[in-house]
Structure formats: C-alpha cells, structure tokens
Design brief:
Belongs to the GMC oxidoreductase family. Its cofactor is FAD. By secondary structure, this protein is of the alpha/beta class. The chain folds into two domains: 325 residues, FAD/NAD(P)-binding domain (3-Layer(bba) Sandwich), CATH 3.50.50; 178 residues, Cholesterol Oxidase, domain 2 (2-Layer Sandwich). Helices cover 26% and strands 20% of the residues. The strands form seven sheets. Strands 1, 2, 11, 12, 13, 14, 25 and 26 form an eight-stranded mixed beta sheet that branches. Strands 7, 17, 18, 19, 20, 23 and 24 form a seven-stranded antiparallel beta sheet that branches. A hairpin with a 4-residue loop joins strand 13 and strand 14. The protein is globular and about 75 Å long. 54% of the residues are buried.
Length: 576
Amino acid sequence: MSDTTFDYIVIGAGTAGSLLCNRLTRNPQHRVLLIEAGRKDDYHWIHIPVGYLYCIGNPRTDWLYQTEPDPGLNGRRLRYPRGKTLGGCSSINGMIYMRGQARDYEQWADLTGDDTWRWDAVLPAFRQHEDHWRLDAGGNASEEFRRLHGSKSTGGSGEWRVEKQRLRWDILDAFAQAAQQAGIPATDDFNRGTNEGVGYFEVNQKNGWRWNTAKAFLRPTCYGRANFEMWTSAQVSRLLLEDLPGGGQRCTGAEVWTGREMVTVHAEREVLLCAGAVNSPQILQLSGIGPGELLQRHGIAVRRDLPGVGANLQDHLQIRSVYKVQGAKTLNTMAASLVGKAAIGLEYLLRRSGPMSMAPSQLGAFTRSRPGLAHPNLEYHVQPLSLEAFGEPLHPFPAFTASVCNLNPTSRGTVHIQGPDFRQAPAIAPNYLSTAEDRQVAADSLRVTRRIVAQPALAPYRPEEWKPGVQYQSDEDLARLAGDIATTIFHPVGTTRMGRDGDPLAVLDSRLRVRGVQGLRVVDAGAMPTITSGNTNSPTLMMAEKAAAWILEDSRSAPAQHAALHPPATEVAEPA
C-alpha cells in the first residue's frame, strides 16, 4: 500500500465493481485500485452451487444484516444477506440469469429522460458480456435468439457464462404442466423482453460450478495487468471531498481501514462506488452526502444535501407456500439419511450434477395476479424441498415450495446510518406491504398458487397445503398471512436512484454521476429508479457495462486531473 494515488478507485468487488475493473484496466495507462471489505473468494462453498446454504449467514461471506422490525411483516425482522467477498452477491446469490422485462427499461428512460436506458439500447450491453450455452460451437439457436443473446455471426463470446441446469425433478415437471393447465404458457427463454411463461431457470454456472463475477471479470485478466491493484479485507470509512470554487464538491479519494491502520487513497479521475444498495448509501451518508437532517442528527457535517440517498428502497418479497406430497421424490426425503446424502455428494463428485449443483430455485414462472393486467406482475421460484425458514433443517416429510413475489411493489423503504461509526450496520427498513396495492397483490398471488396446484397434473401427488393453510381465504386473512410467512428474495435496489434534472430525490443523473459532486459515480443496483421485473444481478451487470463505456468516453475527452507517473501495481495481499 505504499502507492496510494490511482486514476480510478472502485469501491466494492461485487457484481458491478468486478466488471468495471476489467473494462477500465484494458487501457494500460489507467491505474485502477479495487477495494473490497471482504476476503478473497477462496472459500470452497462459494463455488459449489448448493454452498449458498453455508455462505448466507456466515461472516466469512455475508455482512449479516437484519432489517428493522417491519409493521408489514407483523413486527418481524428478516435476515438481509449481502455478499462480503470477491464477487459480492454473485458469490452467494441464486445464480439465476434474468434480465427483466422490456417495459422496465422503457420506464427507466421515461424517469430519467434518457433514451439510452430503453430496451433496445440496453440489449447490446447485456450481449456484450453474455456467454450463452446455446451459442456454443455447434449449438442450434435461432436468428431471433442470436439477436437477443449474441452476435449473429459468432454467437456468445462474453465472460458471463449462462448454462442450463444440470438436474430435473418429476415434481417440478408436474408443477410446470399444472401451470400450463392454469393458462401460463411454457417458455424456454425468460430473457426476450417479456418473461411470461413457465420453465426451468438458466443459471450462471460453468460445468457445474458457480460462476461469480470475480472468476468472470477479475481472474485471470485483471490479476495479470500491471495497472490493477486490489485490496481485500479493507473497508472504506468515508469519501474525501474538496470544495470547488463557485460551489459544489469534487470527490478526490477515500479513507480505508485495513484492519491495522487508516490509509488515505486518492483518485485523479473518478471514484466509483459499487458497494451495493445497502452499503453505497451508507458510505455516502458517512461522507456527508445525504439527507441533511439525518446527517446532522448523527454529528456529520453536511457536504451535499441529497434527501434521496438511502430513500426509495425496493425489494421483492416472496410468499412461501408449502405443499406436502405423496409418491414424489423431493430433497426432503433424499437428504434424510446418511446414505442419501452420500449419494448426493457422489453424484456431484463424479458428474457435477444432482442436488449439489442446484440453484436455490430451479423452476420459474411469470404470470398475472389477476386477469386484465397488461403484463406479468408475479414471479414464482419453485423448489423440490421445504423448510420453516432459510437456514433451518428440511421438513421430515416430502414437499415442494412455491414462492411467489410481486414484481413491481409500490412499498418504499429506507437505508439510514445509525451513527458516525463506519463499522456500525445501517438501519434497513424495507416497509414491506405498506400499501393497499401490495397487500392486494399478496392476497391475489396466494390464490394464483392455489389455482395452479389444483390442476390435474399435480393430482397424482395429492398435494396438501401445509403453509399457509386452506383455512385462510379472505383478502384480510391472506394479506396478514403474507406478513407472517413472507421473506425477502434478496433484491434490494433504488437507494441512490438516478432521475431527471430537478427531481429532488434523484441522487444520480442518467449517467450515474452523483449530483453536485464531480468525480463520483454510483454503479450498482441502488441506481435503479424502479426494481426490474425479475432477479436483479444481471441488470446490475448491464448497468456496469454501460457505465464503463461512459467512463472511458469521458477519459478520452478530458485529461486526468494530474499527470503523475506511477510504477506498476500488483495485487496486495490481505492483512494477516
């Protein structure tokens, strides 16, 4: 850490930060420092797909956040996992490749006044890093599929591997057939711009291993570049700001706690905050950028009063319905004995398939909570297993779980610091089910689940609703039950949202630059003005791809603030 001046400082080695480092260090004249609060991704459970069970709730890989008691959840707190390792949440998430719906990006363009966020404009950014299994040599993909997922001539050639799952379950096949009988069409591609349908999710895996963004974008490319330096187990305490003549500020660097000392680092071009929808607003607020009243309450000097920092929190809340079944193989029964567990382990060891290759959810479906809606507003994650809560033992009876979430919640929450100490976790208040619309969708979605399960395709397995229970029928009962049993799908977004000029709650402009602060961008899911209609990891990668292009464009049009020369940089080891 002897050299502390760089062209770009990237804070957070997660989904967006890893891609940004890859793109920026392609130019050998750009010296880039990557700062990650967690450790390297050398923990074996990161890479075995089912290892998310051992990564979430583990201080080795998770920030261990919890929400505040939530009135919409009848006073419950939820575990709120956030990745704390190289790869960030891509190292502990569900590995599902999902772009969302075209209308999501049309809405972003309308909210920001910038057509570069429209569906046709973001497609090239998705394609740029995608490496889809159907476009492998000798693959059979239609011209339309190639238009959506890769080059018409060469197919997929990016770093972000997308593969089909390496297992199937009879009970999930029956659920898919029942969904079709209930009017949901079959689909083999959820990423065409309309994700309506039912089918197995495609996943970010490679040959049966989790494919996180550290493997995709940092190794081996960045590690071999002399202009790249990485600090792990290093937490940013605050950003450095200098006042500019005539008003405004410029971000010039950051203070970093290495575990032994506080180190000051400087950026000659830009600081890129990629710490996620929880940690990015926390860092901004600790630096004096945020709601003035909040900062003053905690004794932090207000450098830029931006009330939208930490506001607009959106998340997908899943309502887990559990059905006991008969005559079906489920993970509950397979993993009930030592012999069964040994067979599962042996299958993965020999073939990289079976339950150990499972994403948390295997089968997906997108549909409407009621007739007449213009677009699907529900997403199902269906699993051949059941348990009381994430992290608890499987039930001792065969069962499947059909989790359903409202894709477009109207409830909004906050992320706010609780004091000036950077080591203190922020207060996370999602305010789930705080609007009448969200409570109605919750009740309606449980009825959709019941309608699917009542179809003939599942009848041979005699499904019995174990949770929430058929005794609950009214809107009021079902909405209250949703509060009792619902959990997060870990999709927080929106806490540093972009927006139009003049929007008092817009933290960023449409190119992800912090308003009133030069040299500072936020590039992560917090920048989304509204949540995408699906899983949020891949849209975050797309945003980073676009941001990288803008940053490089700016670097060509404007010289660095300083012209200092620097010696070659290497990776910095973790503190002992």
